[in-house]
Amino acid sequence: MKLRLLVALAVVALLPWILHTPYWRGILIVCAMNVMLALSLNLVLGYAGQLNLGQSAFFAIGAYVSTILVKTWGWNFWLAGLAAMIAAGLLGLALSAFAVRLRGHYLAIASLGFAVITYQILINWEAVTEGVRGIYGISPPPGFRSPVALFYLVAGIALIVYRVLDNLVRSPVGETLRSIREDEVSAAAIGVDAARWKAFAFGLGAAIAGLSGCFYPGFVGTLVPDAFNIVESFTMLAMVIVGGMGTMIGPVIGAVVLTFLPELLRGFGELRLMIYGLALTVVVLFLPGGIVQGWHALRARFS
Fold first, then answer.
1. Gap between the Cα atoms of 67 and 138, Å rounded
2. Domain locations along the chain
3. Does residue 171 have a pLDDT over 70?
4. Predicted confidence (pLDDT) at residue 114 exceeds the cutoff of 90
5. pTM of the model
6. How far apart are CA 149 and CA 21, in angstroms?
7. In terms of Cα–Cα distance, which of 220, 229, 243 is closest to 136?
8. ∠ CA(117), CA(121), CA(123), 5° rounding?
């Protein structure tokens, strides 16, 4: 585990100097945010087994709450980020009320509705969010103005999130969440309070997504609702599925692949979306357990 951590730190330290153009350094920052988003959804979907399609809403809440507190109320960025993370987590707890009563595709529709409602609020509550006009002139966090510094900050926090969640899912908490995923009725029969643990997963997953959202406005410099439409929720879902849900490294791989693949396919022009969609289809059809499953199968075959 220590060796893996050292390798991860070395990779993070070297990446901005290998991909040294401003464009690719920007992609690295987006990738680090996507890693956090994929990990947050994986906790809910991969470990607790709850099909949540509202994750983009928590990403938006983190971005808007932190930006409004800084720009309008003059808060310190770090305090604003903490408040945004708490706000997203509390709304995640509210969404978990649906998870207590709904399962499967019914929960998916309810959570998707939550994402749509959040998106409409961002558009129409112009007195607070500026609506489609957006909020402009947003600065990166103090002390992290350069792309390299911002990448190190976001990637460092992503590593911390990974370690915290990795320790969590290896603990009895992880076993409890997996028991709910596999058979909620049987879990309840042995004394597991499914409602409480679903709320825990939703709240923590939402807080992590909100944390990721805090860094998005400072990176882009502007904040508009279109950055948080429901398509983003499906993109996060694809990252978890393609990488391998129910594993820790899977969502990280999925986030990296689905962040970089569209950029690497830009040379194909209008065909890039077709190739991108075909690649996703092939992975889902032939590797239902994601890239991680394919890797384990390959190792087993040649070992």
1. 8
2. 2-302
3. yes
4. yes
5. 0.95
6. 14
7. 220
8. 120
